[in-house]
Amino acid sequence: MPELARDEQQNSAAARAxxxxxxxxxxxxxxxxxSHTTFLLASIGSAIGFGNVWRFPMMAYSYGGGAFMLPYLIxxxxxxxxxxxxxxxxxxxxxxxxxxxxxxxxxxxxxxxWATVVGTFLSAQYYQTLLAYCLVYLVNAFxxxxxxxxxxxxxxxxxxSSSLDGAEASSGLQPGSGEAGxxxxxxAALAAVRxxxxxEVLQVSSGVDETGGLVGPLCGWYALVWAVVCLGACDGxxxxxALNKLLMPMPFAVLAxxxxxxxxxxxxxxxxxxxxxxDFAAIWSPSIWVAAVSQLxxxxxxxxxxxxxxxxxxxxxxxxGRSAIIVSLSNSAFSLFAGGTVFGFLGFISHTTGEPLEx
Length: 359
Prior knowledge:
This protein is mainly alpha-helical. It starts with a helix and ends in a 6-residue tail after the last helix. It is built from 16 helices and no strands. The longest helix has about 35 residues, at about 320-355.
């Protein structure tokens, strides 16, 4: 009986503590995720992004493919997962947004919390711009012929040859060196892609003395991206969770389509093997370890305030360790998937051009 009474007392105290923690700093009940799965989807969504698709393959390529993988996997378990555990634990325990959390821990350092918010906002500008570019290409992919097709580029180049010559000069290319002249199919394809990017997407002016004004289509897509972001965040955890349920499967589906295409190309196997073939001599370089840790911290959004804020919408009793492991492993699995896709295409390029993959 004494044990039962003591257990009831502890449960009652835990319930009171949980109810107290659920109150925000202004006394209103804190918003909650609809389920633990929604919290995991939102956290994985904050981790997975452009960095997985191009920064991870770039870092792996720069540091010798497989030579980068061993430090990366070690840093995953000894740096990234502990960091995510810490941020989840702080958010769930204190039940505050990032700025209020920092102010609660050390009032004098509240400015650090605001600096994180400003940094994250500026980073968001970069990502929203990239998403606007992606939408431009997505819409134009349904045109027939596609604007970056070789035949379409020939017409575009003939209409704006003087502008393209200026672009070649600014990029260190000589007019008639092949890119604009279309001496080979590869040269023509490169010129087509460059023409669409500079002439239609960016609408590059002739120089710094001519600003050219705002690019209407880009501004429209940029505003649309921000409207979706604001709509997703308007109702706290509820709207963020709903948006993640809708959008989270999309990167996996798109990447799976690219991967399926990559593995059917000749030479893809050699490229993928390069990614997973370690060079043990290279792992003694300190720079490769710094690169692995920075890639992981960048990937899981450590130190940006996102994880602490998301965790604050979860009940304090939510398992922290398991959630951190799921989020970190999902981020790394997506990076490896993207790396295999990119290295598959690199292997195909190497096979087609006859140049070594390292060059």
